[in-house]
Amino acid sequence: MDRQELREKAMKLPLSPGVYIMKNSQDEIIYIGKAKALKNRVSQYFGSQKHHPEKVRQMVYHVDHFEYILCGSEFEALVLECSLIKQHRPKYNILLKDDKGYCYIRISNDPWRKISFVMQKADDGAEYLGPYMSAWYAQNAVDGALKIFGLPTCRKVFPKDCGKGRPCLNYYIKQCCAPCNGKISKEDYDERVRAAVEFLKKGGSDSIRLMTEQMTAAAENLDFEQAAKLRDRINAIKKITQKQQVVATTLPEQDVIGLMTEQEDAAFAVLRFAEGRLYDKEDFLLKDSAKEDGGVLRSEFLKRYYAMRGSPPPYITLDEPPAEEELLLEWLSGLRNKKVHFVYPQKGERQKILEMCRQNAAECLAQSHGHLGHELSALDELAGLLGLPSPPEYIESYDISNLMGSENVAGMVVFRNGRPYKQAYRRFAIKGFVGQDDYASMQEVLTRRLEEYFKHKDSGEGFGRLPDLILLDGGKGQVSAVRSVLVQFGLDIPLYGMVKDGHHRTRAITDEGKEIAITAKRQAFTLVSSIQDEVHRFAISYHRTARRKHTVSSSLTDIDGIGQERAKALLSYFKTLKRVKEADIEELMQVPRMNRPAAEAVYRAFHSENENDNENQGEIDGMLCKKSIDN
Hints:
Elements: H1 3-10, E1 18-23, E2 29-35, H2 38-45, H3 54-62, E3 65-70, H4 74-88, E4 103-107, E5 115-118, E6 127-132, H5 135-148, H6 169-172, H7 186-202, H8 204-220, H9 224-245, E7 253-262, E8 265-274, E9 277-286, H10 294-309, E10 315-318, H11 325-336, E11 341-343, H12 348-369, H13 373-386, E12 394-403, E13 406-416, E14 419-420, E15 426-429, H14 438-456, E16 469-473, H15 476-489, E17 495-500, E18 506-510, E19 515-517, H16 522-557, H17 564-574, H18 577-582, H19 585-589, H20 596-630
Parallel strand pairs: 7-10, 10-11, 12-16, 16-17
Antiparallel strand pairs: 1-2, 1-3, 4-5, 4-6, 7-8, 8-9, 12-13, 13-14, 13-15, 17-18, 18-19
Helix pairs in contact: 1-2, 4-10, 4-11, 5-7, 7-8, 8-9, 12-13, 13-16, 14-15, 16-17
């Protein structure tokens, strides 16, 4: 069917709750959705495509026909939708890769036993601890045990490799006992492995209690060397435990879910807590999903995630409400057979944990796009501070530089994805007036920049791209001056000024009304400070270059017959004033725009100065010589 036929069929659907099933020409299910009113929802797909995300447009393009199932209520439709998606896994639904599986901690049966993390249990005579549902938890437990008890993580085989090489870095930072250097006995090594296995089986608290008793007994028996070893292990366990305290929570059980978007992609991070501690972490990268509404995206993720994971915890902490909030809570409570609550923290411990979760989502996105997670986190923090709908991927910043109105110039720097994007930097010489007027200068620069946009907007690059945010080095006056330019061009671009304190350091961001303090937002503060420092550096370096050229050019234009054009030609040809001074008449005549009288004038100007200098020096030398004879 073509789209018109599909729309006509959709308009005949009942206004009843149900599930619709989109299929392609091969009769394959490509999308499953639910609707409160089937007619209204399905007909939207086959109407105007203007407001649909690209992913939806692609899905509609491949739809050949659709089917539907009527349900008694919207809740029944939700339950059926989740069941059908789990069964058929359609291409255009959000699908989460379920890489969960049982994993184990392996203790080999070699003479010098090793502890490692493995995904499968083998019939090899080794001892296995587990199974564990969380690979993240098991891997971290193994890493912690190896560090605490100084056990090797390398692939060397002992005793074959004992004493055959120099120890690695881990030995020198006291994280490995280094059997490779042959200085640890078999008995001592076995005791370390036994203690590590005990730690993995019983946990930190029981291990600390047991080792404390052993340390006390060793001290009473005057075995101070053994007591010191046990003391160091106790301290190591406490250190590892203290790191976990950072993510401890007063809630007995909860999932924390954070969403981050960048360009076309989105990422969810899930931190799972039980008994006050983090026991699992998962990241999910969703390609081509960032343009979807955030509430809808969260709703879809929650349905897919808990259909895959099963029983949800009593509390689910989110950064923003999902679409169909009440319906989702009813469904989640049914899965759990107990009441489930959504939590949206604004401050306190929960909010800090949520921010950590969002940083994990940012890191997932950053790795997929080849940059750093903290850069995306800083942009997200800045967007929240300024009330922007999404993190500003492309930021332009402007600064004016002059000296008492002379050599009036401006610099434009660009930060893309939180990093300087130097190929998009631009410099402006102020041409509209002479003198010092920072407001008028900003107006001229932004006017010229936006005029270039309308000339090159089809390219989408350089001046042909509009920024997501404009930051001016200045206060309310500069913002007001530039705002009128944006209004003139009919553009609605977020615009703010960067305000400095008495020590020339970034203090706040301002619009035309009020200042927004940013010092409390560490990552956003660092980003804005970097932008302000960079645009100031770029503008002032251009100003210094312009002044230097003007000074050099002035020394040439003071010569009879040399105007601005010939001065520029000389500097362009010889590059430096020193080389101009050293050139002879024939070389000077090779410069475009120069003739013999002009070349002789330049040569005479610099060489007569040298001759005068030599004559003066001769007179001084003669006077000194005469004075010495008289004496």
